[in-house]
Specification:
five-stranded mixed sheet; Jelly Rolls; single chain; 3 domains; alpha+beta; 21 strands; 435 residues
């Protein structure tokens, strides 16, 4: 993010070359300022996936973990589940920067019972651009009268593996993983057992108006809040930006992405240069759109989606079924590395036009509390954060550093301590993957 990178760079300048204190090398300064990679949840414990279910470590529902996915073969984790709640398990796979990718490679997640029977399975791939970037897949253990399996309490297993590790151009490296599990209680009262018959499936007009600057985050836990409106950012080839939009019950979501014209003077064409993915509050994939780029402005919109409703889960269409929760929906934008070959590695203008329409409705009325407790919430605080954004905090940090430097009576040592304190406060919220 621009503001954060500026503070880190300034702190690095203060630290470098001061006698008696460690400085940052030129290479370290560049890493600190650019802050590449994926931002994992701060403090997430690391667990090792087991090669056999017999050795699987138990994941606690509602917590986030870090792990490693080998180049081939599945890894297993155990889940202790009751007989009343739905459980959603998601794995975000993070390939190393600068690696290779096969078109249909990615991450595959499944949930199985103690007899090896599949409760659910999902696969997320890199797509036509074959550009490595964070992708997430989800699988569920649902309690439903239409399902005869996976209803009982007991030990279940979350299994994660590569989608196509032997494909042409597939990465030979191990990948980092971020694992999450969410528990959804049953409704207090029985509701509809079929998906809504009709909803507004017409493609809405993209939101018009002056774009506001909002820098994207580097991971799901650092996703930048957005609300309805027009938002402007810049994205470099090979980078992935994360945003989140609060969408309440009864509301309908749509987004359009635009790549601005290039100023590099390069020529060429990159199919699926921009990949825009939408994930629901439990990191389940909903929809995506790919946008080709030839240096001129291009745009693409997500396909029309239904309003958020509990009964959507009964739909045979996976996109409709994924719109089953209120909460924060994640927009994840990735610009393919190949864009740099034709148009240079400089940033490309990115505009997001976000629409949240429809009439707010009451939720299903759960018989208990979800875990985490706020995962299906899209209340006033979420909208306030989306409108105001994190800019105020970052501006305050920038002002603190600049004020310290501007006061002539402050010595080098005092200015250093102020800069170091601000750098620490900013950096402590971010954990970046190796490389």
């Amino acid at each position: 993010m621009a503001g954060r990178a500026g503070v880190v760079t300034l702190a690095a300048v203060l630290l470098t070359g001061v006698p008696g204190l460690p400085g940052l090398s030129t290479g370290q300064e560049a890493v600190a300022a650019e802050a590449p990679g994926y931002a994992f949840e701060e403090g997430a414990p690391r667990v090792e996936g087991a090669l056999s279910t017999a050795d699987a470590v138990q994941l606690e529902t509602g917590r986030t973990y870090r792990s490693t996915l080998p180049a081939s073969g599945p890894v297993h984790y155990s889940l202790e589940l009751d007989d009343t709640s739905n459980i959603y398990a998601s794995a975000t796979a993070v390939p190393p920067d600068g690696g290779s990718a096969a078109v249909i490679d990615g991450v595959k997640v499944s949930v199985q019972d103690g007899d090896g029977r599949s409760c659910d399975v999902d696969t997320a791939t890199f797509g036509a651009a074959a550009s490595p970037h964070p992708v997430a897949a989800w699988a569920a253990r649902e309690i439903s009268p239409r399902r005869s399996l996976c209803k009982d309490a007991g030990t279940y297993y979350m299994t994660v593996e590569r989608a196509d590790p032997d494909g042409k151009g597939a990465s030979p490296d191990a990948w980092e993983l971020e694992l999450t599990t969410v528990s959804e209680p049953r409704p207090a009262q029985a509701g509809a057992t079929t998906a809504p018959d009709a909803w507004n499936s017409a493609s809405p007009e993209p939101v018009a108006g002056q774009a506001r600057r909002r820098a994207g985050g580097a991971g799901f836990t650092e996703a930048t809040p957005l609300d309805e409106g027009v938002w402007r950012d810049d994205i470099r080839p090979g980078r992935t930006l994360f945003y989140k939009v609060p969408v309440g019950w009864g509301r309908q979501f749509n987004a359009t992405a635009e790549l601005g014209s290039s100023i590099s003077g390069g020529t060429g064409f990159v199919p699926a240069a921009l990949d825009l993915d939408l994930y629901n509050p439990v990191r389940g994939h909903v929809a995506d759109v790919g946008i080709g780029y030839d240096g001129r402005q291009k745009s693409g919109s997500l396909s029309p989606l239904p309003h958020v409703a509990y009964a959507n889960r009964h739909a045979p269409n996976s996109q409709v079924a994924a719109m089953r929760f209120a909460g924060s929906y994640y927009l994840v934008a990735h610009l393919a590395e190949k864009v740099a070959d034709d148009f240079g590695d400089g940033p490309v203008p990115l505009t997001l036009r976000v629409r949240v329409s429809g009439t707010a409705q009451d939720g299903p009325g759960y018989a208990g509390e979800p875990v985490p407790s706020d995962v299906f919430a899209a209340g006033g605080q979420d909208h306030e954060a989306a409108v105001d954004g994190p800019q105020a905090d970052r501006s305050a940090n920038d002002d603190t550093v600049m004020t310290a430097l501007a006061v002539g009576g402050i010595g080098t040592g005092s200015a250093l301590l102020v800069g170091l304190g601000v750098w620490t406060a900013v950096a402590r919220r971010r954990t970046v993957s190796p490389g």
